[in-house]
Structure to design on (305 residues):
């Protein structure tokens, strides 16, 4: 993992309102991003996904555009070798491949947690090569939500406060952050677990809290690295069902997985092997799979559809 780009956020190029304190959303940290600005994302209910003109960027057709991306780690490991990848708004895709194939490296590059050795990375219309690390941090905080296998919840505070952390740098008053957190928790089916602390939640519930935290700031892109990896199959299905529901409501979601069955449930599979994209299959998702009762409530609406 790299945390070389996770310094505090400062105002982005077209985002003068960005919180100067910033927030580093790094995989070694809490693993989520927040809206640092209280800009476009701050209006509306949680889940007002991806699409509001936000002052940082317009709404480019592709949320992610990678061209010829390579990543070499010190010691000579070429973890990515010439990756081209475009992700359109409102896509739901799997990035699938065996252990060591470069999936997490790719997630870090797409998530702007790390920069490529060569090639170009454009996120929400911004060429990251043109941004300083601090501006990159602001972009990340505003546009990207992260979910990780190991949840990264803050121990000792309630589910509601964990989710409200996702709005910490939004400029919103605490009461409003907590109100939106409550809406987001209701959205993921945990209205009755608001006051529970992480150790009082099941694994699947923890991951749903983490998802609520990742989406409460209404990011353009949700990146999930093995989100079901620590869960039993029923909890994993519930989490995947939730991701499907969020996508139906307009969220752009990339799920990193080594599990071909999980990948097969998603409409598009980008297959990666030895640092290269070896297949990119987009097809209609099989119906009736990966869904579980009791997850998902109506309520999140996209600005664009
Ligand atoms: N910080 C690092 N320094 C050196 N090599 C690294 C570093 N991080 C990853 N690698 C190497 O890069 C390659 C890709 O690693 P990556 O973590 O992206 O794989 P992955 O597909 O996510 O695997 P897994 O499914 O096991 O999580 C591996 O060979 C790994 O050993
Ligand atoms: Mg990995």
């Amino acid at each position: 993992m790299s945390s070389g780009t996770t310094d505090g956020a400062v105002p982005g190029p077209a985002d003068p309102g960005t919180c100067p304190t910033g927030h580093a959303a790094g995989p070694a940290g809490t693993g989520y991003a927040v809206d640092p600005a209280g800009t476009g994302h701050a209006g509306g209910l949680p889940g007002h996904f991806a699409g509001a003109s936000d002052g940082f960027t317009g709404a480019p057709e592709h949320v992610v555009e990678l061209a010829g991306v390579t990543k070499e780690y010190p010691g000579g490991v070429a973890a990515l070798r010439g990756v081209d990848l475009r992700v359109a708004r409102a896509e739901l895709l799997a990035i699938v491949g065996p252990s060591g194939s470069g999936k997490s490296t790719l997630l870090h590059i797409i998530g702007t947690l790390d920069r490529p050795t060569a090639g170009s990375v454009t996120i929400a219309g911004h060429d990251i090569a043109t941004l300083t690390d601090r501006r990159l941090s602001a972009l990340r905080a505003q546009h990207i939500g992260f979910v990780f296998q190991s949840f990264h919840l803050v121990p000792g505070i309630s589910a509601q406060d964990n989710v409200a952390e996702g709005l910490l740098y939004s400029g919103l008053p605490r009461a409003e952050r907590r109100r939106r957190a409550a809406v987001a928790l209701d959205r993921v089916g945990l209205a009755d677990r608001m006051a529970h602390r992480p150790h009082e939640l099941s694994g699947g519930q923890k991951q749903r809290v983490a998802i609520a935290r990742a989406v409460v700031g209404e990011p353009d892109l949700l990146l999930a690295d093995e989100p079901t990896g620590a869960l039993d199959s029923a909890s994993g299905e519930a989490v995947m069902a939730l991701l499907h529901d969020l996508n139906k409501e307009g969220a752009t979601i990339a799920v990193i997985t080594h599990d071909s069955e999980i990948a097969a449930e998603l409409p598009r599979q980008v297959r990666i092997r030895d640092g290269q994209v070896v297949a990119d299959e987009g097809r209609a998702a099989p119906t009736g799979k990966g869904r579980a009762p009791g997850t998902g409530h109506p309520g999140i609406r996209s600005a664009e559809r």
User: Anything to note?
Assistant: The pocket of adenosine-5'-triphosphate (ligand 1) is lined by residues 73, 75, 77, 79, 97, 99-105, 258 (CB under 6 Å). The first strand starts at residue 62 and ends at 73. The two ends are 36 Å apart (CA to CA). The domain at 40-282 is CATH 3.40.50.300 (Rossmann fold).
